[in-house]
Structures are given as C-alpha cells and as structure tokens.
C-alpha cells in the first residue's frame, strides 16, 4: 500500500465531523459523490458499501447496495452491486475524478440474511447457500477487479453490523460496530 492511501480507523465519538462538514445519510440503493468535503454516513448489515476516493483530486463517494444482482427488469438498479458501482463511477468521473487513480474501501456483508434455497432439481445446491452478505461481498470484489479498481482496505463479513462515516475530501473512513437485530451466524475467517 502506498503512503498516500487513505486510512481506516475507529470512529471516535469526539471527532464531531458532522458538526463541521455537510453530511448525508445513505440508505440501501443510494449513491453519493462530492468534490467538496462532505461526511457520508451509513449503517450496514448484509448490505455492502464501496467507498471510492481519488487522492489526486480529493473527490470521493460511497454507494450502499443490498442485493448482489439486479432484477431483469431493472439492470442498473442501485440496490444491486453493478448498478451501484456504475452510478458511483459515473458521478465521480462527472465531478473530475480519474478512474485510474481511484482507491476503494469495501465494507459490510454481514451474515444476517440467507439466500433462498433452490427449488430446481436439475441444479442441486452443492453445500449450503451463501448468505446475502457473502454474495454481496463476492460480487463487489468481482466487479472491482473487472474495473481494475484496487481495494486498499476492507472490513467485510463480520458477525456484527457497522456504522461508517466517510470524509469525501480525504477518503478517510471511520467504522463503529453496531448491534444487529438478532445474533449473526458464525462465518469462517476471510482473508
């Protein structure tokens, strides 16, 4: 990792960032990008957030997607990974960010929800179905690799949800664990 890569640190309640910068809260399916300093906050369970930052221009943004694949009738839905990444990249580039210098921080993918079992006898499930969080993380990694966007930090597939705060002008992200509605299922260690 280069010396200019943005940092990942614990959220300090004393930081008071929300009081000094404009802020926005992202719900599932929302995307936000800014060329001016802004704090983006979201809360993740099985959803995933991709935080993208261009250190040369100081432009950054975040998406928050809930499902791995878009429904056939809405292929660029920002509730799904591909649509959320496509929209965030378009907004960042429209503001002047350069794709070749973007850095990514990846968060979420908790094991809160399971994917439905397959009913198709011709395609039996080989082992347990992944959780929505696992599927979200897997598709995010695949899409980011296809776009040649380097992941400089990730905090994924934890047993607890998390609150994120990203400063768009620096790429810094603060993370604080939050309680889930019900206990998450145990997961194998990832990376």
Helices and strands in order:
Layout: E1 8-10, H1 17-20, E2 23-25, E3 30-34, E4 39-44, E5 48-54, E6 59-65, H2 81-95, E7 103-108, H3 132-146, E8 151-156, E9 161-167, E10 173-178
Parallel strand pairs: 1-10, 2-4, 7-8
Antiparallel strand pairs: 3-6, 4-9, 5-6, 5-7, 9-10
Query: What's the pLDDT, averaged over the residues?
Result: 83
Computed CA radius of gyration, to the nearest angstrom: 17 Å
**Strand-residue fraction?**
25-35%
Count the E strands. 10
Number of domains: 1
* Uncertain regions spanning at least 5 consecutive residues: 1-14, 183-191
Catalytic activity: L-glutaminyl-[protein] + H2O = L-glutamyl-[protein] + NH4(+)
InterPro entries: CheD-like_sf (IPR038592), Chemorcpt_Glu_NH3ase_CheD (IPR005659), Cytotoxic_necrot_fac-like_cat (IPR011324)
GO molecular function, one term: protein-glutamine glutaminase activity
Function: Probably deamidates glutamine residues to glutamate on methyl-accepting chemotaxis receptors (MCPs), playing an important role in chemotaxis.
TL;DR?
With 191 residues, the chain is of the alpha/beta class.
Would you write up a description of this structure?
- The chain is built from three helices and ten strands.
- With 191 residues, it is an alpha/beta fold.
- The protein has a single domain, classed as 60s Ribosomal Protein L30, Chain: A, CATH 3.30.1330.
- The chain has a five-stranded mixed β-sheet, with no helix packed on it. A five-stranded mixed β-sheet has the order 3-6-5-7-8, covered by helices on one side.
- The longest helix is centred in the middle third of the chain and has 15 residues, at 81-95.
- The model is unreliable at 1-14 and 183-191 (pLDDT under 50).
